[in-house]
Amino acid sequence: MFRIAASLLAVPALILSACGPTTSSEGQSDASQTPVERGQYLVSISGCHDCHTVRGTEPIGSAARPNLAGSDSELHIKGLGVFVPPNITPDRETGLGGWTEEQIADAIQKGLRPDGRILSPAMPWEPLYSHFTREDALAVAAYLKSIPAVHNRTPDPRGPDDTDDPAFLKTVPRRDLPPPPDGK
Prior knowledge:
Layout: H1 2-17, H2 35-46, H3 48-52, E1 73-77, E2 81-83, H4 101-110, H5 134-146, E3 169-171
Helix pairs in contact: 2-5, 4-5
């Protein structure tokens, strides 16, 4: 039991420790990274792809799994409803394209959307990402603004009375994505 609890606590600790000064694989310090490079690094170690990219075995960024273009998984939160992690590419209609880098950083650190609503607890901004420095949150925003826009609308959240499945994670059909290159 203790090992399980220690393992669960280790993940946030690793993520938060990665936000401090580091050295790249080439031995260069963070000071030599551009904000987009730093943001890409933070997105990769923070697990953004785990929720905001379709699950599967194809490489992330392939036609079948567009990078950060929204999920095919439903997150059921008792008493609140069902949430599908949205598209966080810079698509203006279905992603973060209409958000400024400051607004994206506010969502990361404060859980605050530009329209004033608070993000659902499915987005772990409070226990994890609120500890990012402002510089790191803006670096993530710069990276998200730099990736290719993918037009992909994810399902809207549903209220607590709309949950009929006790499962925590459930796959939902994709919308608005082109078929994989092999046509299947």
